[in-house]
Amino acid sequence: MKLYNSKSRKIEIFKPVEDKKVKMYVCGITPYDTTHLGHAFTYVCFDVLVRYLKFKGFQVTYTQNVTDIDDDILKKAKEVGKNWKELGQYWTDRFTTDMKALNVLPPTYYVKATESLPKMIEIIKSLIQQNIAYENEGNVYFDVKKFKAYGELSKLNRNQMLQIAKDRGGNPDDKKKHDPLDFLLWQNSKEDEPSWDSPWGAGRPAGRRGSPGGRPGWHIECSAMVYQYLGDQIDIHGGGRDLIFPHHESEIAQSESYTHKIPYVKYWIHTAMLMYNGEKMSKSLGNLIMVSDLLKKYSASAIRWVLLSHHYRTPWEFNYKELDEAEQEIFQIKTTLNHLGPSSHSEPDLSGEKSNEYLKQFTNLMDNDLDTPAALSLMKILGNNILKKGKANVEDSQKVLKNLLKILGF
Ligand SMILES: [Zn+2]
User: Which residues surround ligand 1, an ion (CB under 5 A)?
Assistant: First the structure.
């Protein structure tokens, strides 16, 4: 099986660290708003990867996180006058409901960042001890100059990194930093923000009511959860392409500095951005298509079909026409599977051999960097051939079609 590795920018033969065992982590949502189709694209693609790896005989341990403490959640909680925890739980539940509707299998471990705080503190302590991180007035920063490989994943130069850090809340103008590219590992909580006890924050009794303690930076959350739930080295780390910098770049710096196990991740897999009305589907642009809205008008299978008819690495533009067409495809396949019924003929036929041929074609396509669009086309061809055959000798073909659809999560 071959997969595209964003780190090497090459299609590589997939070989996990431990034979037949796959450790996989995918960055989860920050639950402050509803699930849009861009999220669904990412999680459905990784769902198919998990299902396919299992079909290939791998034992998969899959961890996904919920970034339940973050600037965005606190900001939104303030805006709507809700408790940050309640807000996070509400949107997490909505997200898991949407994923269940789309037949996305739950990960082995689905964990909240706030459940890994001791691990985060342990990692930060070690980084300070090694002189790779420094404290300044209660904030702790990672000193990027101490990590030579910083930038190797994104392949961005310093100016590009600074620009993106600025656009994505990296705050390069923060005077407490030694270098504008240094990133937060821990920060002081403001009076009205949640806070946890920590060894940092000189002169401020940490974590007590009325005396601000601290809260973690974003990137350290994932490093801690990967370590806690999967170990010091994993096979696959996934997420949307917009997470490459600074999030995943910073995760590598923290984790490899902490564990000294290189590489932290063997294969970096990133999903492409989804567009709508000519721009990236994003909260800030207000061009979101919500999964829950689509589910009111379309079947979950049709939504899944549209998502998988686009390769996970190819950016694409959503339009409703594709959903209508997908609904037709689903109807056609259902007819193929149900209407004909299994053959009662006992005469010998070659359909078994032919069916194996389909299975071979299917695995060839999926082995080639998870070519789901081509796999869906194959489903259509197989379906058409079953219809052509009429009532006789279709049982084997129907079985194969059913099984292949199952691997794709239908
Ligand atoms: Zn993450």
Answer: 27, 222
